[in-house]
Amino acid sequence: MEWLIEAMSLRFEFKQFDGLPRLAWCARLESGVTTVTVKHGSWVETNQDFFVEGAWDGQFEEGALDQTLLLMGSGGRLVGNQALFATPCHTLERLQLVRRGSSLFVSNSLPFVLAEADLTLHPRYSDYQSDLWSIVRGLGRYVKHIPTRNGPPVRLFYHGNIVIGPDLEISEQAKVSPPRWNGFAEYRSFLVGALAGLRQNATAPQRHVSYDLLSSISSGYDSPAAAALAAEIGCSKAVSFKTGTRYLHDGSEVEDSGVHIARALGLEVQEFARAAYLGANSIAPAEFAACGDSFDLQLAAFEGELVQKLFLTGFGGDVFWDRWNNNPNARIARRLPPSGDSVGEFRLRVGFVHIPVPFLGAVGHPAIHAISNSPEMRAWMLDNDYDRPIPRRILEQKAVPRLLFGQSKKGSFAAVTWSGKHLQSCKSFEDFYQRYRRERNFWRRAWAAVCYLLSKSRVRWTQTARRLGLPALMPVTTGWDVRPIGQRTYVVAWGSSVLQERYRVACHTN
């Protein structure tokens, strides 16, 4: 029997293509074949029994990336006659899986898995964006399959491990659960320890590529708190936008620089104009579009600073650190728009590891919420509609003056109109749109329009209520009912088509 088990054991065959994005990978498994072929970019770390792009809070050489609460990135490992693939421990990125005939493909990139499986997204389908956004409803409630034009659907996996057996049978394995924190001190200690563990793993001598720390910082709550924690484990640099927008108001620009907070924390900070993304790499708009839309496109301004970095951000703080969130749960449910979700393809090309600090241990949100509202946090509560005691306490205990941060809610979204002329990619998108716009089903377009108008009315009510000092009686957006219409419904299919060609050329499969 031992010889039979040995004969069935899998092995990796790695194929590096320097033309691929540095951290992209796609694994191919064949029924009855013991070799798992992994095509990958030049910065994916490979080992006889595992591969990874990213870091986790464990010993790198052990390769136990599936046995951690804190994998930032993705990868795979062999366990006897099974292959295991691990998603990030946040829900801003995912793994994609397609089975076609006797072959099964798994990748950290949607365009890559489509290219390898010889599939394309269907321009007639208008819900790719809302399908990808559906993860804001939380684990177990998101859209798990998206259709393709010429074959089987793509399966989407978030926050879990995928186990694939010899006959390509698929099972899911839950991530490690976080501890239950009994108070602020325990939770803060967990965050610092998590970041220290990630840094130690990311700089392990066994790696071919190591990563240094870089934090984002603004005048709000979340990224400054992330920067404060990063400073404790050796981070010395931060990046900031000079301005933001008035969140849910008139969209006008307002001062949002975190430079004074950074200096109070002893960090060297570099400021960028919010519109600096307009001079970014011409492929960047397609990268963000392929992941859902352009809300995070402004981060392309940081490209030169992000290479080989552990990039700490405050994405998720508006949910997990918000004192007034009335739905704390273990599903990692969030709000729309899904900020942080469109960074993935850009990250794979540039070569950095994204660490959205509020997501660390986010399945323990009920315990985090209880801490935010506990009596011990009373001195750090403001009792207004922008009240986050946890990051406030982190910052004030680092001697950052109270009036420097968290005074009003601001945003930094890139306001991209895909029909405009300010992006080099707009001509490519316009051509794609004009080619496929008449192929859509009328009733699908009509239903999307109704949903869009309903969501816009809710946003306008919230904006008006806030200006008048009235309570917002309904949430701004919730899950399924936000379905863009018109040109925006084409951006995912367009972005994916642009990147698929890049992947095909890189792997010499076009």
Overview of the structural elements:
- The protein is of the alpha+beta class and 510 residues long.
- It folds into two domains: 11-176 and 502-506, Glutamine Phosphoribosylpyrophosphate, subunit 1, domain 1; 184-411, 3-Layer(aba) Sandwich (Rossmann fold), CATH 3.40.50.
- Helix content is 29%, strand content 19%.
- The protein has 15 helices and 21 strands.
- It has helices at 2-8, 110-116, 128-133, 184-202, 222-232, 259-264, 284-290, 303-306, 317-320, 344-350, 365-372, 389-396, 426-436, 442-468, 491-506, and strands at 11-16, 25-30, 35-40, 45-46, 50-55, 72-79, 82-86, 95-100, 103-107, 145-146, 154-157, 161-164, 170-173, 212-216, 237-241, 243-246, 253-255, 268-272, 309-313, 353-356, 410-411.
- The strands form four sheets. It has a seven-stranded mixed β-sheet with strand order 1-3-2-9-8-11-10, covered by helices on one side. Strands 4-5-6-7-12-13 form a six-stranded antiparallel β-sheet.
- The longest helix is centred in the C-terminal third of the chain and has 27 residues, at 442-468.
- It is globular and about 60 Å long.
- The two termini are 44 Å apart.
Largest sheet: 7 strands, mixed
- Dominant shape: globular
Report helical residue fraction.
25-40%
* pLDDT < 50 stretches: 1-7, 471-484
